[in-house]
Amino acid sequence: MLTNASFLKGxxxxxxxxxxxxxxxxxxxxxxxxxxxxxxxxxxWLGGRSVLISPIxxxxxxxxxxxxxxxxxxxxxxxxxxxDTHVPVSRQHEAEFNLYYGYPYxxxxxxxxxxxxxxxxxxxxxxxxxxxxADRIERESPDSHLRSTEAIxxxxxxxxxxxxxxxxxxxxxxxxxAIRYVEVATRNWLPGKKVLVSPSWIERVxxxxxxxxxxxxxxxxxxxxxxxxxxxxxxxxESRLYAHYGRPPYWAHEAEHQTSFSLSGV
Length: 266
Prior knowledge:
This protein is an alpha+beta fold. 24% of the residues lie in helices and 30% in strands. The chain has helices at 5-8, 74-78, 91-101, 130-139, 149-152, 218-222, 235-245, 250-264; strands at residues 2-4, 12-15, 18-29, 35-41, 50-53, 58-62, 67-70, 146-148, 156-159, 162-173, 178-186, 194-197, 202-206, 211-214. Strands 1, 9, 10, 11, 12, 13 and 14 form a seven-stranded mixed sheet that branches. Strands 2, 3, 4, 5, 6, 7 and 8 form a seven-stranded mixed sheet that branches. Helix 3 packs antiparallel against helix 4. The chain is globular, with a radius of gyration of 19 Å.
């Protein structure tokens, strides 16, 4: 299911034994554009501490109730490794987090989520000794490809022939937990409107410049089907979008990948 990130923000997170807090922002992998963590504002019960929740733990989202259920207990979250969400999250921090919860590493396989295409398909890792865990964490590189959706919002979008607008939001697939589209507010061309650009059409992101470089012309971006937050994002709209840009749709590639995954018996 595709949903705008703004609809996910503010959802109440419920553990198996009570409320944890509300969704604040998302950390995504800037190589695959997969959402690796949700940051949760816990409010008073943890002294205002923000914590990370992996999509691996998500059980169900009740949209009318604005609630998301996770397979965690409050005690688990309370005792989870402390991570300062105001600074970049290192790979060692991720390793410690995943080992604490028993999650497999997403960076250790051929699929979007490492050993599986979707987080729901991952199995909990077997317990290891404390020394084995420490050794495994120590071996990890300090580099990480995690970026905050909040930090990248507002970045300028550069087409092949000039600036076209700025990042105004994200459309997330909350089955694969991947950013399917970057929402672009065009303001250099009149009349301005909001359009969608797939991460696969983005050539690079310049963090020092706070700019995204898209491999598309300004005319192509400006003339593409308009994106309206008030309208459901249907497969028919997506098909028109890909046809406009002359690009193959992501679901065709993923269907082939999923078939290969199923036949391999992984």
